[in-house]
TrEMBL record:
Name of the molecule in the record: GNAT family N-acetyltransferase
Top-tier EC class: transferase
InterPro entries linked: Acyl_CoA_acyltransferase, GNAT_dom, UCP028520
Keywords: Acyltransferase, Transferase
Domain of life according to the entry: Bacteria
Region (Disordered), start-end ranges: 183-202
Enzyme Commission number(s) from the entry: 2.3.1.-
Any one GO molecular-function label of the UniProt entry: acyltransferase activity
Record-annotated N-acetyltransferase domain positions: 3-164
Organism taxonomic ancestry: Bacteria, Pseudomonadati, Pseudomonadota, Gammaproteobacteria, Lysobacterales
Length: 202
């Protein structure tokens, strides 16, 4: 069956929370209030479905966001404009099946119209070579390391240049075409963050 990536729905937040907190030490735990905050404010919050079941989720935001993560702050202090992947979680039974790549392709198609680069981190505690290799194969490279003050975990700080951004910016400036695959509005039951004018993130 194909993988479907779409905006999260409010009634799925409990399932997303369970996925996050079952992911193991590579992902920081969340509580319901924190997840609700992401739902209300995150620029990008999408889930993947496979065979009709929730297979994972990805949360991301631009460098203009008011986000209290020390990893986000590390990037913000060094780079003026980027799209930050706060977390990506794939259900254990779906790992290695292409869900992660589907998420990154979707997130990049969103980000490259608005930002010159993508940022994320990979925890270096334990054996996380598969995650580092995955990101390296997708074009990310390490730009530093950071010990998270809130968790005491060292992370590799990764960036990926988005080559299409310059052309998009030069061609369209602050006025991206108003077509569904670009604007991707949330449903009426969700927040309006995806309806933010596209020029504000550039």
């Amino acid at each position: 069956m194909s993988i479907v990536v779409r905006d999260v729905r409010e009634h799925e937040l409990d399932s997303v929370l369970a996925l996050n907190n079952a992911a193991g030490p590579a992902i920081l735990p969340l509580d319901a209030a924190r997840l609700r905050h992401f739902f209300d404010t995150a620029e990008y919050f999408r889930v993947a479905e496979r065979d009709g079941a929730l297979a994972g989720f990805l949360i991301g935001m631009g460098s203009h966001a008011d986000h209290d993560s020390s990893n986000f702050r590390w990037f913000h202090e060094r780079y003026p404009n980027f799209f930050y992947i706060d977390r990506i979680v794939v259900a254990s039974r779906r790992r290695g099946g292409g869900v992660g790549r589907a998420f990154y392709a979707d997130a990049q198609s969103y980000a490259e119209l608005r930002y010159p680069q993508m940022a994320c981190e990979v925890f270096l505690e334990g054996t996380n070579d598969p995650a580092l290799l995955f990101h390296g194969s997708f074009g990310f490279h390490e730009v530093g390391q950071h010990v998270m003050e809130e968790a005491g975990v060292r992370a590799a700080m990764l960036m990926k240049p988005l080559c299409s951004f310059g052309w998009v910016r030069e061609t369209y400036g602050d006025a991206l075409p108003q077509v569904p695959w670009i604007t991707r509005p949330r449903t009426s039951s969700g927040p309006a963050h995806a309806r933010r004018p596209t020029g504000t993130a550039l």
